[in-house]
Write a structure and sequence with these properties.
The complex is a heterodimer of chains A (330) and B (324). By secondary structure, chain A is mostly helical. Chain A is built from 13 helices and four strands. In chain A, 77% of the residues lie in helices and 2% in strands. In chain A, helix 3 packs antiparallel against helix 4 and helix 4 packs antiparallel against helix 10. Chain B is elongated. The chains are: A mainly alpha (330), B alpha/beta (324).
């Protein structure tokens, strides 16, 4: 009798563990494969390059997306927040304003985008998909209007603010500044989500909004705050992007949207409850960045690189969901 | 006396040439009462924007009404806008720079609807006239400059993400043609793919990857791209990696890229500078002439481009109306 009860329990536990290890296992396998196939891949310099150039910018955006998806939403306007921040900051710097003022104004612009989204989603009750899609379109138009149709603003020559270069290319204690920023953002989001009442409200709003509302939780206020926080994080990413390439090219931030959504969902595979979480999201972003870098270094044609990324996302999610179904069937 | 006669004849010739020039500038027929549809794939790049503005300004100057639509770098959106334009039955449609294979059936539909079609930088059998730079010459000159700068020897990185855009294909094909004469220049495989959006940072990251893969001086001699926004990212990556021996090359001549070429310490070695505003304006002038009855327009109108290099930057920037 005890055997018949205990065996399914152990199997479920084993399956649950396997599910959570799918993504890390894929990551380790790919790391090994690339390290064997490309001597350049396994150099410390390349690892730093993956982290700084392929990981930091989408990671910060994806952390915001993690918050939003945890609250049961989706944010298609992440690129708009990043771009508005970069546009304001670079415009001010190009007209010789100080670095602090420019960056601060850029972040304020991103927060403004977040507040508009909050108003639409939490205030007017518009579905997050439609509200953020609308903000995405309006944001594109605003950028084109503000830049005379979409003219990039470059800070490539004679730019006095050395601090901008330090933001993207400097180091503190030997670690690149952008990585410190990702670390700080990750700790902040993790702390908020897992160790505060706000985080509990976010997760409750995402899991069962009606129950949360009838339980007296401030669902609207929570959701509003989540979109503002997401926009703020995207603004940070936009400023880092501008600092990296010393320019603002309209609509660049949209490039992070799909990676952010993909990484947040890949990240759910390491969670016992299949929920978005900070370590999982960072793992997902690193997986994408590493894959792009590794495939380029081993000489794969770009179009096959895209196929590989798509297949990877499909494989990880399919394996994880299949295992979960088996687990629940037990 | 003979000298005086020659001088007078010279003055007369100069005066008549000036008169012809003035007449050419002013003899563009009015577009009053005409509606001109303008469809462009995108405007977020210097070239696109200037050519687009050149068209709109010229339609207004000639008294017409422009129905201008920007596809936002989205093929399906541009096609949808072309359908909208066809439904509005304007007097002519001008299509600017898009994905050739995707566009062709829709350009054919414009002609099938009886609407005169003109193109800017889009080669199409359905276009009455395509106004463009001489991309064959641009591609050849840029490739020859690159080959000369690296002394006919070395490995080069090539951004070739937009081969489906006809003008990019011409420039790339010209590069390959020129390189046939320089067997010691090799294109590193795989070629890189420039993307939209986030062109600059993406080019920066890809070039940084390749500089890691080829870490020694001399392993990469130059970086070529069919337009100049990837060149910005590539140049910054070269600077960040402290590899100033790697030269960068591109096409379009955005003012900031011209400034980079003018900077003696920048790895940006050359950019083929086009005159996009003039290209857009000239396309509309051709529309006006056609609508006024000049049905013998040539299929192509080529607007000159200049190759801006570190050696000639002072003269060439004056030629294209920029300040280095």
């Amino acid at each position: 009798m005890s055997m018949s009860v205990g065996t399914p329990g152990r199997e479920r536990l084993l399956l649950a563990t396997l599910v959570r290890w799918v993504t890390p296992a894929v990551l380790i396998l790919l790391l090994l494969a690339f390290a064997i196939a490309s001597p350049t891949f396994r150099t410390p310099g390349n690892l730093v390059h993956i982290l700084v150039n392929n990981f930091t910018l989408p990671a910060i955006v994806a952390l915001g997306m993690t918050l939003v998806i945890s609250a049961g939403g989706i944010d298609l306007s992440v690129g708009t927040s990043a771009d508005i921040a970069a546009m304001i900051a670079v415009t001010l710097m190009a007209s010789r304003h100080g670095l602090g003022l420019s960056l601060g104004a850029g972040l304020a612009g991103a927060i403004g985008v977040g507040m508009v989204v909050s108003l639409l989603v939490a205030g007017l009750g518009i579905s997050p998909f439609l509200a953020t899609l609308g903000v995405l379109f309006v944001g594109e138009s605003v950028q084109q209007l503000a830049t005379n149709g979409g003219t990039p603003i470059y800070l490539v020559s004679n730019f006095p603010a050395a601090g901008l270069t330090a933001l993207a290319h400097g180091t503190v204690l030997g670690v690149p500044v952008p990585l410190w920023i990702v670390l700080a953002a990750a700790l902040l989001v993790q702390l908020l989500l897992r160790h505060t009442a706000f985080g509990r409200h976010v997760r409750a709003s995402g899991a069962a909004p009606e129950v949360a509302r009838y339980s007296g939780l401030p669902v609207k206020r929570t959701i509003a705050a989540v979109y503002v926080l997401s926009a703020l994080l995207c603004g940070v990413s936009g400023l880092l992007l501008a600092a990296t390439v010393k320019s603002y090219v309209p609509l660049s931030g949209n490039a992070f949207l799909l990676d952010a959504i993909g990484a947040a969902f890949v990240g759910t595979t390491i969670s016992p409850e299949a929920k978005p979480n900070v370590p999982g999201t960072l793992l997902g972003v690193f997986l994408f960045g590493m894959l792009h870098n590794g495939l380029l270094l081993i000489g794969w044609n770009f179009y096959w690189q895209q196929v590989a990324v798509g297949l990877l996302v499909f494989t990880v999610l399919a394996a994880s969901f299949a295992a979960r179904r088996l687990q629940s069937a037990d | 006396m003979a000298f005086k006669s020659t001088l007078l004849a010279g003055f007369a010739l100069a005066a008549s040439l000036a008169a012809i020039g003035t007449a050419r500038a002013d003899d563009v027929p009015s577009l009053k009462g005409k509606r001109i549809g303008i469809t462009v794939i995108g405007t977020e790049h210097y070239w696109d924007l200037k050519a687009y503005q050149g068209q709109i300004d010229e339609v207004k100057r000639l008294g017409g009404t422009a129905i201008a639509l920007d596809g936002g770098r989205n093929d399906s959106r541009q096609i949808s806008q072309i359908q909208t334009l066809i439904a509005q039955k304007p007097d002519a449609i001008v299509e600017q720079l898009g994905n050739g294979p995707v566009l062709q059936p829709w350009l054919k539909k414009i002609r099938a609807a009886g609407i005169p079609l003109f193109t800017v930088d889009t080669i199409s059998p359905n276009s009455i006239n395509d106004t463009t730079s001489d991309n064959y010459s641009i591609g050849e000159k840029l490739a020859l400059q690159l080959a000369s700068d690296i002394r006919g020897r070395g490995n080069i990185l090539v951004f070739n993400g937009f081969y489906s855009v006809p003008v990019c294909a011409i420039r790339y094909d010209e590069l390959k043609l020129v390189l046939k004469a320089f067997p010691d220049i090799h294109i590193i495989q795989p070629e890189l793919r420039d993307v939209i959006p986030n062109t600059v940072q993406n080019a920066y990251a890809q070039v940084t990857d390749m500089l890691q893969k080829y870490p020694n001086k001399g392993q990469i001699a130059a970086i070529w791209s069919a337009w100049d926004v990837p060149q910005v990212g590539a140049t910054q990556a070269v600077v960040a990696a402290h590899r100033p021996e790697v030269r960068t090359y591109g096409v379009d001549g955005s003012p900031d890229v011209v400034k980079m070429v003018a900077d003696p310490s920048s790895p940006a070695a050359a950019v083929a500078a086009q005159q996009p505003y003039l290209i857009g304006k000239t396309a509309i002038d051709n529309v006006a002439r056609y609508l006024a009855g000049a049905h013998d327009l040539p299929p192509y109108t080529f607007i000159p481009a200049v190759l801006v290099t570190k050696a000639n930057v002072d003269e060439t920037t004056k030629e294209i109306g920029q300040n280095p």
